[in-house]
Amino acid sequence: MKWTFYQIWNKSLEDRQQKDPKPRDTIWATEIGGAFVDRYLKMKGEKPTNPPNARSLRKFEAGNIWECIIKYVLSRAGILISAQEWLKFEYPDLLPVTGKLDFVAGGNPDYQKAVKLVHSEFDWLPKSISKATLNIITSLREKFPDGLDPVILEIKSCSSFMFEKYERTKQASQHHRFQTFHYLKATGQPEGHIVYISKDDARMIEIGVYNPSETENEYYSDIQAMTHFIRTGKQPPLEKPIVFDPDFLKFSANWKIAYSNYLTKLYGFENQMQFDNKYKPIVERWNRVLGRISEGKNMTKNNEEALGEIKKEGFDVDVITHLLAKEVKDGEHDGQVQ
């Protein structure tokens, strides 16, 4: 009987037993910043109508692979302090939050021992990884001979599209900021870093999260709202299908709906493709209008109709137009500076 490696590989990654949800009064750190209605149903023990499919499970494992590589590099560089530690924090009268951080790195490494370990234990990884680790050790030894302050590291792999957004805006996603801030709040540490890795080309950027910072106000408000929904038994409102991204100045189909584990129950779509087929054409049409506004072109009849749809859905066209104008002005200024 013939066999293929890819079939064995795919099945091994997809063969993950899904746990039956159970009611709970603890918020997972990874949930903060997500759709309240989805979180409410999960915490009430509602069985998902749209659990992660095979592709989603493989994407999770791709992230785990990158975490494994980063852990090995940190360990062999001698700066891994701890990994996968569960941390809990609770404000008075609010639900507790718990989560498992990726890594704490820093400390006082034995650089000489680290170099020996790289030479002796990196045979299974590409030479480029071994070389990168040696370069890291050399750089740390030169810049921090007396050791490094401990820093929490959260590793997030993403598509090149999302990576370029993070790189352009220098802003981490809201739910990643909340998750990292939770670990800072639970440990009392002042600084954590979200490390984004592009799965397409292995580029990496690092964005800081700090304690104290304004992030705590958002973090607290999220927990306060979730506590209210759970304790009153009142289901949160549904998400809007289209959202406006102030960083990219574009509309997009709401990922909180597209990836909802309750997509069918809450929104009536059998799968993500159905949702995308309905709303992505609308998003493209609306974004064409934004393009014409940015270029200073006159509105066509079709454009005017699209503007009416945008207003009807509750978006402030005047505010969006102001943001677009500012973007154009800033771009012109940057061109003059060059």
How would you characterize the overall build of this protein?
The protein has 338 residues and is an alpha+beta fold. The model has no long low-confidence stretch (mean pLDDT 91). The protein folds into two domains: 12-229, Lambda Exonuclease, Chain A; 239-337, no CATH class. Helix 2 (36-43) packs across helix 8 (215-232), helix 4 runs antiparallel to helix 5 (127-143) and helix 7 (174-187) packs across helix 8. The strands form three sheets. The chain has a five-stranded mixed beta sheet. It is globular and about 70 Å long. 52% of the residues lie in helices and 16% in strands. The longest helix has 23 residues, at 54-76. The relative contact order is 0.11.
CATH class of the largest domain: Alpha Beta
- In the CATH classification, which architecture of the largest domain applies? Alpha-Beta Complex
Our estimate of the beta-strand percent is 15-25%
Rg of Cα set: 23 Å
Q: How many β strands by DSSP?
A: 10
Unreliable stretches (pLDDT < 50, length at least 5) are: none
Order of helices and strands: HEHHEEEEHHEHHEEHEEHHHHH
Features of the shown structure:
single chain; 338 residues; alpha+beta; Lambda Exonuclease, Chain A; 2 domains; three-stranded mixed beta sheet; 13 helices; 52% helix; 16% strand
Could you outline the blueprint of secondary structure elements for this entry?
Elements: H1 5-14, E1 27-28, H2 36-43, H3 54-76, E2 80-83, E3 86-89, E4 97-100, E5 103-107, H4 111-121, H5 127-143, E6 148-158, H6 160-169, H7 174-187, E7 191-198, E8 204-210, H8 215-232, E9 242-245, E10 250-253, H9 255-258, H10 263-267, H11 272-294, H12 301-312, H13 317-337
Parallel strand pairs: 1-4, 6-7
Antiparallel strand pairs: 2-5, 3-4, 5-6, 7-8, 9-10
Helix pairs in contact: 2-8, 4-5, 7-8, 11-12
